[in-house]
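[Automated response] Your request has been received and processed.

Submitted sequence:
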Amino acid sequence: MAIERICVLGAGKLGSGIAHVAASSGFDVALRDIEESKLEQALNQIEASLADSERPAGRITATLLLEEAVKDADLVMESTPEHIAQKGELFATIDAICAERTVFATTTCTLSISELAGSVKRKDKFLGMHFFYPVTETKLVEVALGEETSAETFGAVRQVVDRMGRTCARLQESPLFIMNRTIVAVINEATFMLMEGLSNVEGIDNAMKLGTNWPKGPFEFADEMGLDTCLEYLELLQRELGDPKYRPCPLLRKKVRAGHLGRKVGRGFYQY
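Generated structure:
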């Protein structure tokens, strides 16, 4: 199963980053969005960020037409808003258009891979590919297998990840996968320590950075992710896994209710 043509559905920050990396790695890419302005913005950003030697000479084709985007694809990567019904409807539509060889991947880390695979007939050719923002700089790709994902499908996708110069982390389907599940648990524990008066924000962040060589402390990570996103992720883990260790810290809830959501609003655990 050789993959050469990739379709990316969704030209937001994540989707455009995936298209950028794929084209720079020698794949032919079709980038599709429902808004022409997003496509233009994505193409302009990709063009501006590439050196002359890196330009993917016409490898990216932008289109508003779904059928045109997916019809020749070997791999379709969906990067649309986190609504399972809408994603399921999209996959059901393209399942009827794409060739039998086409592999489907979703970039979600919050929705069930197996449930989304239920939208298509090719459940063995369905998996999750979770990239991290900014895609052009982050070397990890989490590849999550659904209940019926075949070994052949995983092997083909792993070759894609390798060709992109990324490291593949293989895992079975689980809420938030590896990285996000780990980091929000650390953020939550750090917030409990802060609430208990064990140390202050800077003290806890510096301890983690100096003690583990993390590039950022847990509160810096939280402000970058968005405190509302951290809370949403913890509630998801508690609901899906039923484990009380994911109970969100009351201080985190308090900050979200106060609108202190992190960098995007200028105030979270830090002020910006």
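Summary generated for your ticket: Residues 194 and 200 are 6 Å apart (CA to CA). The radius of gyration is 20 Å.
If you did not submit this request, please reply to this message.
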